Amino acid sequence: MSSSDHSSDLVGRLLREKRARARARAAGEDEESQQLLVCAPMVRYSKLAFRLLCRRWGCDLCYSPMILADAFAASARARDSELTTSPSDRPLVVQLAAGRAEDFLGAAALLRGHCDGADLNCGCPQRWAWREGVGACLIHRPEFLRDLVRRAKRGGGAEGGGEGMATSVKIRVHEDGRETVELCRQGSEHPLEFATF
Ligand SMILES: Cc1cc2nc3c(=O)[nH]c(=O)nc-3n(C[C@H](O)[C@H](O)[C@H](O)COP(=O)(O)O)c2cc1C
Q1: Where are the domains of the chain?
Q2: Which residue CA neighbors atom 20 of ligand 1 most closely?
């Protein structure tokens, strides 16, 4: 995981807070304070109870399971069944599966205030995901990713992914790793807060 210096730099902020806590404990800059413990998204597992348990054991940042953005944006019933959270369930990144920028942005707008970031799943390799045009197939659509990040980063307004909310992607690495590097380099005008691989 890498981070850079942008307005809603979630990873950077969490690391700074963690170091500050370590300093406050007068424990100095121990090794633990140099790393974030992140609980990766896991369908069926990363639900509220599991996330709270992970936090109790020192997890700094939790992901939700992957949620289909189109259903989440369109249906209150889907929202109620797919995501439950609580005030102590922060910082939280909600992972979305979307093959259309509108779906991602619509879901992210509804998430504003309830989490700290919206992440696009570009890693799910399952056959149904390829059929639906979501998940790992997106690593072959760099122009789509560039457009989505640009629009999410514009912030505010109906299309805003959420001001103060991080936008990130979780990427399945290409067979040729150079393509992954190229994918991450593109769109430097609207860079991601962070990416996971
Ligand atoms: C049961 C299970 C469910 C998963 N669900 C998701 C998911 O919803 N979204 C995602 O991006 N990755 C998902 N993954 C992949 C994990 O987030 C992670 O990238 C992968 O397990 C590799 O990390 P590890 O080596 O620590 O296991 C899942 C993995 C497992 C084992």
Answers
A1: 36-196
A2: 40
